[in-house]
């Protein structure tokens, strides 16, 4: 729910490579993210926009949960934060903390609380939003949904009533999930990693980081940090209850992990080296490198040059992550030391349209989406929500991308079954395969194009 199972894709590059014979681009690209779960594709695309100053990109974000839209907003805000407030390394580690960790640093908790107040002002005041975050467009959200977003942001602020004991919820869910295997959970974790996740192709994920995440929900760790505060961006189903809130506890993926989005591949092959099955770099380290590149290029509008000093190298090390420091009550600062209310970095040729939750099920029949999208991305768990007539939303000569379940802990039979469903849908819609299926390799994403005469 909170992250996807394929690497971040730069859709400008994908469109040029797969559909444009001469590398040319239209004046604008309309991109639909149908249940992407996180903003990885937005960030990968936005970081390269400095190469295409004349191109206008509109990203339409469709999620089935209002809390996910709020999470998209805060993660995007981190990446586009004013450099006077956060350094590049500060943005990188803050993003990783909020993106993948049940428990976060006190600094991250204070940022989330302060940013929640800023985001409340952004979604309740159109003129203020134009000054502070002009790339955000939420005009299609219903007033009820804006009120729900306001409630989500209120829950994120640090107050005694806003309790979210994610460590307990995670452990309770794990006990129910494993049953009698709970007392031997390390063996279960190792089997899921070695016989499923790595066997399916996610070889960058290391045993120490994966087992620690399965045990605690903390995916990204570094020796200099201790995570202690609940990450309230993982709360869904929020309902006001007096001064506090009711919610659904721990939901979402707790078997594959947040490693694939940014920690599966990178440009430097040396980061993928391993010896006797032991990686030189963790998926965490690769994530750090890739997120750092994204925030660098968004901020500086020029290509990132890799420096090994920029990242950690802990592939073969067993880090002492310390005791679980979960606080059962929310942090209650009287006031944050820093107010994160400077305007976000401008990106004049990018607009992110937050679609109504109800649009997920009705998009195929809404006239305003007819023939609108140049690029469509369908998440693996949203394939079942694709309705007859969904292809009405695609332009001729469009690129259609389907996330598979390849880089997950699903069995090979389940992965194959899901892939066959994608292929059957593509055949039904007369889509032409762009992915080369003749190559004997696994595909986290299947790419198709819609013929111009379709």
UniProtKB/TrEMBL annotation:
Transmembrane segments: none annotated. Residues 2-104 form the DUF4470 domain. One of its GO terms (cellular component) is dynein axonemal particle. This is Dynein assembly factor 3, axonemal homolog. One of its GO terms (biological process) is motile cilium assembly. It is found in: Dynein axonemal particle. InterPro entries: DNAAF3 (IPR039304), DNAAF3_C (IPR028235), DUF4470 (IPR027974). It comes from the Eukaryota. Belongs to the DNAAF3 family. The lineage of its organism: Eukaryota, Metazoa, Ecdysozoa, Arthropoda, Hexapoda. It holds the Pfam family DUF4471. Keywords: Cilium biogenesis/degradation, Cytoplasm.
């Amino acid at each position: 729910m909170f992250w996807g199972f394929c690497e971040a894709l730069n859709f400008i590059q994908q469109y040029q490579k797969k559909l444009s014979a001469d590398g040319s681009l239209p004046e604008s690209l309309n991109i639909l993210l149908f249940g992407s779960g996180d903003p990885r594709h937005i960030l990968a695309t936005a970081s390269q926009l400095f190469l295409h100053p004349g191109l206008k990109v509109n990203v339409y974000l469709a999620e089935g949960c209002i809390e996910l839209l709020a999470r998209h907003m805060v993660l995007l805000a981190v990446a586009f934060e004013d450099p006077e407030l956060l350094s590049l390394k500060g943005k990188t580690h803050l993003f990783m903390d909020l993106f993948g960790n049940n428990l976060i640093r006190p600094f991250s908790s204070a940022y989330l609380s302060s940013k929640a107040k800023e985001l409340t002002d952004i979604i309740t005041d159109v003129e203020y939003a134009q000054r502070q975050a002009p790339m955000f467009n939420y005009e299609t959200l219903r007033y009820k949904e804006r009120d729900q977003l306001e409630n989500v942001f209120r829950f994120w602020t640090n107050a005694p009533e806003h309790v979210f004991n994610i460590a307990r919820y995670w452990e309770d869910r794990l006990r129910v999930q494993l049953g009698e295997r709970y007392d031997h959970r390390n063996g279960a974790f190792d089997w899921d990693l070695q016989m499923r996740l790595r066997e399916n192709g996610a070889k960058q994920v290391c045993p120490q980081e994966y087992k620690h995440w399965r045990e605690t929900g903390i995916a990204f760790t570094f020796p200099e940090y201790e995570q202690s505060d609940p990450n309230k961006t993982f709360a869904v189903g929020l309902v006001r209850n007096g001064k506090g809130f009711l919610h659904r506890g721990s939901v979402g993926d707790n078997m594959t992990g947040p490693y694939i989005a940014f920690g599966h591949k990178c440009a430097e092959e040396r980061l993928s080296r391993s010896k006797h099955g032991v990686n030189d770099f963790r998926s965490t380290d690769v994530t750090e490198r890739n997120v750092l590149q994204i925030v660098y290029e968004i901020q500086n509008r020029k290509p990132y040059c890799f420096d090994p000093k920029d990242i950690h190298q802990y592939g073969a090390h067993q880090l002492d992550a310390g005791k679980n420091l979960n606080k059962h009550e929310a942090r209650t600062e009287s006031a944050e030391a820093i107010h994160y209310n400077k305007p976000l970095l401008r990106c004049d040729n990018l607009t992110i349209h937050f679609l109504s939750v109800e649009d997920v099920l009705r998009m195929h029949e809404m006239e305003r989406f007819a023939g609108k999208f140049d690029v469509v991305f369908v998440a693996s768990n949203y394939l079942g929500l694709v309705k007859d007539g969904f292809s009405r939303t695609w332009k001729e000569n469009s690129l259609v991308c389907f996330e598979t379940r390849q880089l997950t802990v699903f069995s090979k039979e389940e992965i194959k079954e899901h892939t066959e469903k994608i292929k059957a849908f593509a055949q039904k819609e007369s889509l032409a395969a762009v992915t080369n299926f003749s190559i004997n390799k696994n595909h986290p994403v299947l790419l198709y194009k819609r013929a111009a005469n379709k």
